[in-house]
């Protein structure tokens, strides 16, 4: 498996290809899209715990919590794995969704 390029400009295409190769190499290809979605939800919760820890908020002292960066990386890996299983090109999906978003009117909530 080729390592992920050590640059700040890794494309979504490169990320998806890397995750596909990594899953093959590590024997994770048997996981279904449902399995991957559930794991993504778990990792999202871990991001929230890491943010709470970073913000010095109370957390379960027995929880093993990584850094925000590490937990976000896990989320990104699962997003790419789900996209791969669904046959979704994340770069194109992002462009298509942003074309829709650009037609929307966005409002900012104001605290009373």
The 3D shape can be described as globular
List segments where confidence is low: pLDDT < 50 over at least 5 consecutive residues. none
> What is the tally of beta strands?
0
Distance between the termini: 54 Å
**Over all CA atoms, what is the radius of gyration?**
17 Å
Please report which band the strand proportion falls in: under 5%, 5-15%, 15-25%, 25-35%, 35-45% or over 45%. under 5%
Largest sheet: none
Helix content: 55-70%
Class by SSE composition? mainly alpha
Task: Please tally the helical runs, counting DSSP H or I stretches of 4 or more residues.
Answer: 4
Secondary-structure element series:
HHHH
Mean residue pLDDT: 91
Description:
The protein has 112 residues and is an all-alpha fold. The chain has four helices and no strands. It has helices at residues 12-26, 33-54, 68-86, 90-101. Helix 1 (12-26) crosses helix 3 (68-86). The radius of gyration is 17 Å and the shape is globular.
